[in-house]
Design a protein that fits this description.
The protein has a single domain, classed as Uracil-DNA glycosylase-like domain (Uracil-DNA Glycosylase, subunit E, 3-Layer(aba) Sandwich), CATH 3.40.470. Helices cover about 45% and strands about 20% of the residues. The protein is built from 8 helices and 9 strands. β5 and β6 form a beta hairpin. α1 runs antiparallel to α4. The model has no long low-confidence stretch (mean pLDDT about 95).
């Protein structure tokens, strides 16, 4: 890869789309969206099946959970910025279905270069890592959500490590799901308050 500087996020995204193409088991590039600059950036793992079809991040079932949690945390999504550590849907075909395949550490590391430049344009005061894969991309090391959840420094950036909203969808019982959801909202409130303390806000 030839390292170059970009004059805008749009130029970066154009280069990203040219560099990372679809292929067997790999969907198209889904770039981030939201306010630029933004006080809060939320980074997930990778697009899902619905995101790949629509070409937008967090528009599937996990995205709907995230939207509700952001609203409950007092954060307006359009004033935040949402993206993924890995920009393409990695999947395994099972008949007509495309099943999620978790990206490995090498794939996350290869795309970290793009994420860093993306966040440089977004200029977030706080970065929220939604799950361990996003945490790996942001911290440059493996992170464990159960041990490190909460405020965390990602290089020079202040951040919050929390679960991915898809985790809440996988919980079998309603009581546990509600408890986990409330904890997720609390993490987003923490991010909002950190941004407000720095004089920047994405509140409704």
């Amino acid at each position: 890869m030839v390292v170059k500087e970009f004059t805008s996020l749009a130029a970066l995204n154009d280069a990203l789309q040219a560099a990372l193409t679809p292929g067997p088991g790999i969907g198209r590039v889904v770039v981030g969206e939201g306010a630029v600059p933004s006080p809060i950036a939320l980074v997930g793992e990778q697009p899902g099946d619905e995101e790949d079809r629509q070409g937008r991040p967090f528009v599937g079932p996990a995205g709907r959970v995230l939207d509700r949690a952001l609203a409950d945390a007092g954060i307006e999504r359009r004033l935040a910025y949402v993206t993924n550590a890995v920009k393409r849907f990695n999947f395994v075909e099972r008949g007509k279905r495309r099943l999620h395949r978790k990206p490995n550490a090498s794939e996350v590391t290869q795309e970290r270069w793009w994420l860093e430049r993306e966040l440089a344009f977004v200029q977030p005061e706080v970065v929220v890592a939604l799950g361990a894969t996003a945490g790996l991309a942001l911290a440059g090391r493996r992170v464990t959500v159960t041990r490190e959840r909460g405020p965390l420094t990602f290089g020079r950036r202040r951040g919050v490590l929390t679960v991915h909203p898809s985790y809440l969808l996988r919980m079998p019982d309603e009581a546990g799901r509600k408890e986990a959801y409330d904890a997720f909202v609390a993490d987003l409130v923490c991010a909002r308050e950190m941004a407000q303390q720095a004089g920047r806000t994405a509140v409704r």
